[in-house]
Predict the structure of CDGSH-type Zn-finger protein.
Amino acid sequence: MSAEASARPVSITACPDGPLLVRGDLALFDDDGEPVQPNRRTFALCRCGASAIRPFCDGSHKLVGFRTSPPARTPAVTFDEAP
Ligand code: FES
């Protein structure tokens, strides 16, 4: 089985009052274009700006009282393979 065939589809779930939960096989890059290794197949991206380990969430959104407005909606957005 090729690497492409075994790739998991990517989904991003906006957690209410919290991070973006990312699942699937994808490449992540910092603002210099350097690859960032999440070291997990599922990880949370900070969207409150308070994390000490950006771009990842460290739970600080709870300490700063981050609120999503309007509330995040479910279900997750899933990206299908390009045609
Ligand atoms: S969303 Fe969790 S620390 Fe920012």
Q: What stands out?
A: The chain has one domain: 1-83. The radius of gyration is 14 Å. Helices lie at 3-6, 60-64. The beta strands are 10-14, 20-23, 42-45, 77-79.
